[in-house]
Amino acid sequence: MIIDIHVHPFLHESKILEEMKRASVDCAVLLAVDVDPLDVEKPEIKSKLQKRHMESSFGFNALRSAPIEDEIKRFYQGLISYYPELKSSNQEIASLVTRNPNSFIGFGSVNPNKNEDYVEAKLEEISTLGLKGVKMLPTLQLFSPIENENFEKICEYCEKNKKVLLYHTGCDPGPWENPELSEDANPKHLKPILESYNPTIVLAHTGSYSAHKPGIWFDEAYKLGKKFDNVFFDSSAVSSFIYSEKILKRLGDIGLDRLLYGSDFPVVLGSDMKYEVNVIKKCTYLTEDEKENILGLNAARILNLPTDSHT
Ligand SMILES: [Zn+2]
To answer: For residue 195, how far is its CA from the centre of ligand 1 (angstroms)?
Structure first.
């Protein structure tokens, strides 16, 4: 059984199903993303981003001549024009699942910058639509897991309702390749909230995604996993870093039953579901049992799917 824990429905569903077939993926977790590009204009968000941008030692000074809020808005516009079939609302994810109940599992999303009523309504919607998890990105959603009070509500909701929290860690493309701008996605900032709430949380990219510095916050992700049993990892967009002897040995001392296959399909250039499956299948540092766990059984366990049907 192969489960891809990290898929973006930015292409027509027929293309996603085709790629799943090619890669022998049985089930794909489709992720909603609830973002509002205009949130960059909120005074507290704008001043935080501007400060980090100006003080950053990353890149060239010339880059700093453009206001960061414009750069961020351009990034969102680019994403929408590059993927005209992009589907990202909770409703859209739920209807993809309704049409393909055996192939897709849906995770919703909540923009935590909106008011309490909005957040409560979205969480209610996630329950009503039968979505099995919540995707959060402190980068694109521009929030701090320490300062944002709605994020606390979301963690509490996931714990109470047994929803999996798939949480972006590491840098992100575009303006977020700057680690200082992505600082809120450093896994170390999750420690205080995980001391109060106990959701099943998957650190997407294991704190390691960065085009310039792969493995950027792996140590911080590792420490969080070592401290909290409810912390899991996905290897999406960072498989060449994760499936090395050194890193697998370190993750092995937390337990490889906490590592999950994910492709981030279709957003990683030069990669797709099949490529990522093959990285794991061909990895010489894993036993056959470990490969089966990483490719699907670990995800089946946290998603409460039957694990006995595989052959
Ligand atoms: Zn992703």
So the answer is: 26
